[in-house]
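Researcher: We're teaching a course module on how sequence relates to structure. For the next exercise, students receive a sequence and then see the predicted structure as tokens, so they can try to spot secondary structure elements on their own. Here is the exercise chain.
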Amino acid sequence: MAFSFAKLGSKQLAMASSVPARINVAEGAVRSGKTIGQLVQWQIYATKYVKRNQPLMMIGNTQDSLKRNDIDPLIDMFGDREVKYKEGELKFFGRTIYCFGAKDKGAEASIRGATVAGCYIGEVTTIPKVVVDQSLARCSLGYGASFWNTNPDSPFHETFEQYIDNQKLVDGGELKRWRFGIQDNPGLSIEYKRFLYRSLSGVFRRRNFFGEWCVAEGQVYDGWDAEANTFTTGGQPSRFDFYDLAVDYGTQNAFVLQLWAWKGSTAFLLDEWYYSGRKEGQQMDDEQYVIEIFKFLDKNKLPLSQVEKLFHDPAAAHFALTAFRKQLPCEIADNDVRNGIACMSSMINIRTMKVNKDKCKNFLKEVKNYAWDDKATKGKEEPIKKDDHCMDTARYEVYTRKLYVTPGIYGIAA
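Model: And here is the predicted structure for the students to work with:
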């Protein structure tokens, strides 16, 4: 398959054809074309500047996300004769590329012994800085260039401060920084750009649409509309595609159970059960919680056979074992807070999340008061950890379910 450079925009072409610096960064809005442009740059670097016997390295937040966001597009662009992936190793135009996931600091040990001629990192701000530092040290063969892409994050992010926004590196010719905007992707229609703008709000709009490096502050779900995002009992569709349960487990802290129903891409929160051992003065054990789940299903006249999944937080393994023994379809939820919040925010903004205002009082109370923590460690963004159990439960459901239905659609690679 011959890739056509005619498909690239002017900024993609300029970046791809430039002489590589020690560090080459493509950053900016989602869907702005930066990843495709950099993948072409990576292909040119690998074939023009790297000898066949010199290995390379690619790093993503996980191996799955690296394959989905970067390797699969390479196969689509250049064909499976030149690009072959198997079990963490990519054969790329006769070169060998070692592929790593680096979700936590422990991944640094995996790459510590490598000696490579170049490194590609997808979504570099999701990679622990110790891994980023080590990747640079590993690039000691030939030109030893690194290629990073990312959406904007906090201006206090360690990798941004030390590398991406380091003017001394730019002035010294060691770093090239390419900023992409929505207008730099020639393949986007005006209708899609309008949709993208509407689907984002607050910090997500500033970062992912306008490409700003900015601090997260204020209400997390500032696009929430008390009318457009709710419905009254009886106002929901008469039939749904499937039902799920979602649980945020707690003993002294609140235990939250939510019933979700999906119609197409729209999620309806039909009902909730909220129990706080601290407030009630009496804890429940796992067996009692399971009994309450079945009571909850009976109240909603929903047989267990119609429940596709029960998504639960990763820390609730003991509860899940008890629930599984009672035939509940337990599944560990994806607890990616950053992407989960972005997914839920988008659904709220485009009104594909609807909540029963008659039955979900705890959810409605939390969503209005869920805010970014301005006292969090500098460079680390997280919501205030107070009265957030309904928010966590909803995030488990919508983000994990979106990954099942359309893998990667709410990821941050673009």
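Model: If you want an answer key for the exercise: Confidence is low (pLDDT under 50) at residues 406-414. The longest strand covers residues 266-276.
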